[in-house]
Amino acid sequence: MKLVRIMHPGLYESGRWFTLSLEEQLANIGADVGRAIQSRAKGDVQASMYAFERALELIDFTIDDTKNRKRLKEVLRMREFLADYFVGNNQYGFTDKAWQDYFYYFGYIAALKRVK
User: Fold this and answer.
1) Are 55 and 86 in contact, with CB atoms under 8 Å apart?
2) Which H helix or E strand runs over 99?
3) Would you state the pLDDT for residue 72?
4) Domain presence at residue 86
């Protein structure tokens, strides 16, 4: 049996992740995706994969969040596309810029919410 490493134990177990809006959750996921992209560009495959794994864990937390049920299809597709991009054959043709653009808007919305 393989043990699952939890990289964000405080977020899930305390329930803090579930207090965030979907946009805030996606902004946090985007931060780890951005780190994965930056690390890969620098040739640090290990750091890139670690950041990617953190992003996957946050996506899984988002999937578990019952308030996101209506957007579950989008979140699941995003997970599939990200996995294909980082560890598959990139059959969907995504680029670093496409991922950065996708997550940028969630970061922007989350920042606006913090200002209010």
Assistant:
1) no
2) helix 96-115
3) 96
4) yes
Distance CA 115, CA 99 (A): 25
| Rg of the chain (C-alpha set) | 14
pTM > 0.70: yes or no: yes
Give the tokens for residue 80. 């599939």
Domain that holds residue 55: 17-115
Is 2 a domain residue? no
DSSP state of 1: -
Token pair listed for 63: 């999937």
- Are 12 and 20 within 8 A, CB to CB? no
Mean pLDDT computed over 23-38: 97
Amino acid at 26: L
Domain total for the chain? 1
Rounded distance between C-alpha atoms, residue 84 and residue 75, angstroms: 14
Please say if the pLDDT value at position 5 is more than 60. Answer: no
